[in-house]
Design a protein that fits this description.
Layout (H helix, E strand, L loop, with lengths): L6 E2 L6 E2 L6 H88 L1
Antiparallel strand pairs: 1-2
């Protein structure tokens, strides 16, 4: 994961990671960095899983709303269609009654 940067001191030419730091301190620093990277990788993995779960829930909720919307639209169309049929039947009945009244009035006028 990480490359150890090796430096050379200009005067002595000796090679080391960081001058004046013992090996155990270097190891501790690397272990601390490794632990932090591991924790970050775990957090990234958990965050990705959480985002995937949220995405799945969003899609499911969106599909549910779409189905409800379609069901409501169909129900509304059926209600309007039924009301229209009832109104047409009512109007036809009223027209029939008015036609009968008109015929009766015409008959009485002709008598």
């Amino acid at each position: 994961m990480f490359k150890l940067i090796v430096t050379e001191t200009p005067l002595t030419g000796s090679v080391g990671v960081l001058p004046g730091v013992s090996m155990s301190q270097k190891e501790k620093a690397l272990m601390t960095l490794f632990k932090r990277v591991s924790a970050l990788e775990l957090n990234m993995s958990l965050s990705q899983e959480y985002l995937n779960e949220l995405s799945t829930r969003y899609v499911a909720q969106s599909e549910s709303w779409t189905r409800q919307h379609e069901k409501l639209g169909k129900s509304m169309q059926e209600t309007v269609s039924e009301a229209t049929e009832q109104y047409v039947a009512y109007v036809k009945e009223e027209v029939g009654l008015l036609n009968e009244l008109f015929e009766q009035a015409a008959y009485l006028l002709l008598l």
